[in-house]
TrEMBL record, chains A, B:
<keyword id="KW-0805">Transcription regulation</keyword>
<dbReference type="InterPro" id="IPR050109">
    <property type="entry name" value="HTH-type_TetR-like_transc_reg"/>
</dbReference>
<feature type="region of interest" description="Disordered">
    <location>
        <begin position="1"/>
        <end position="20"/>
    </location>
</feature>
<protein>
    <recommendedName>
        <fullName>BetI-type transcriptional repressor C-terminal domain-containing protein</fullName>
    </recommendedName>
</protein>
<dbReference type="InterPro" id="IPR036271">
    <property type="entry name" value="Tet_transcr_reg_TetR-rel_C_sf"/>
</dbReference>
<keyword id="KW-0238">DNA-binding</keyword>
<dbReference type="InterPro" id="IPR009057">
    <property type="entry name" value="Homeodomain-like_sf"/>
</dbReference>
<dbReference type="Pfam" id="PF13977">
    <property type="entry name" value="TetR_C_6"/>
</dbReference>
<dbReference type="InterPro" id="IPR039538">
    <property type="entry name" value="BetI_C"/>
</dbReference>
<feature type="domain" description="BetI-type transcriptional repressor C-terminal">
    <location>
        <begin position="91"/>
        <end position="198"/>
    </location>
</feature>
<keyword id="KW-0804">Transcription</keyword>
Amino acid sequence: MTTSTGEPRRRRRPDERREEVAQTARDLALGDGLAALSLRSIASSMNVASGLVAHYEPSMEELTASTFRHVVAVELTEVRALVDDAPTGLDRLDRLVTTLLDPERDALSTIWADAWSLGRRMPLLARAARESMDSWHSYAREILLAAVAEGSVRTTEPDLVALELFALVDSTTAYALVSYRTPKERNQLVRRALEQALGLESGILARRA
Amino acid sequence: MTTSTGEPRRRRRPDERREEVAQTARDLALGDGLAALSLRSIASSMNVASGLVAHYEPSMEELTASTFRHVVAVELTEVRALVDDAPTGLDRLDRLVTTLLDPERDALSTIWADAWSLGRRMPLLARAARESMDSWHSYAREILLAAVAEGSVRTTEPDLVALELFALVDSTTAYALVSYRTPKERNQLVRRALEQALGLESGILARRA
DNA sequence: TCATTTATTGATCATACGATCAACTATTCG
DNA sequence: CGAATAGTTGATCGTATGATCAATAAATGA
């Protein structure tokens, strides 16, 4: 049973409903992970029949993949907003790491971990993951190139270091999901490694944590 | 229906059966991941009623956690066997990385990714993951300390570098599950990062890949 | 106001899950 | 050889999944 005094069940325009389904799926995924997405869980969040959700989505795998894609794209936009206006390249790098490792962010970490785990069996999700990773990678690359240009960091392989940055962040946030090590230790790990990758004086990033 | 000419259903001693259940669960996990473990999937692999599996296991979460624990412990033993007899500390480090990144190993990668993903909802699995990670960490630490002692690598924080090693390996193997980057790129990434963490001449590890 | 369109429902199918337990039967022991 | 022991079955309960579709009812236009 839904709410006893159920609203008289409104009828919406297809694109409106489509958007509502997508939004609900995103909220659900952010709350309980990609594995929590089901026709019924989404439908019940919308107070709607499960058939309606199915009516708008070709398959659960597609819905899962597109939800992942959208959630991660929004996150990238939000992180940019927090990072891009920092004064120097080093500040931006610092803020990027701080933001990505923020414990408040573990809803996102869950989603990434789900993507890697479920991706093995869901090709569409795997594809979405690859493409999203490329977006993030090119953002980190952009930040690193700027920092190199201003002379605050030094590397001959910004692409590789950008990859390394996410390798460190991704594993570290996955560790957080099982409470391995403390936030402080995980932060230290990432920052010390980045210092070495970027020819920074020891502690210059770590001290900011 | 099982095989039509079913064997006359043997009765085994409890510890024998217990071991058979555990072994079957391990094989299944190695084939299809931790998420593929269910009373019925295990029972059907054994040609046995699902109730039998339940009879020997307190709960699926416990079975999942203990299966994970065992699979990962065996893996550590196997890796040690491949690595420990290398002549120098640097050789052992090289072999460790090579082995951990071996594409043949992706059954194990799946299991680790499953553990981080499922661990958020399965406390016993999360605990098993933490403890297993500690075992692996202390093994890497051991290798690094020996390499430091022989003077082939240099670091003031072997614990941190051991953590970093797995951070790189774990993310990289998760990437492999969704086919992000090539084995070669993933290898490069880990090796270049380790070189910098260990004060090694550029390429000294990477060239071995 | 009535007819047309179509968003939405709700039931249904086939399948899967963990868990529980009385009944059955293979084995062992007296 | 018969009885006690205990490993094993198979059915069952409650719940969950994705997918499909006829029927319904809300909105729109004539």
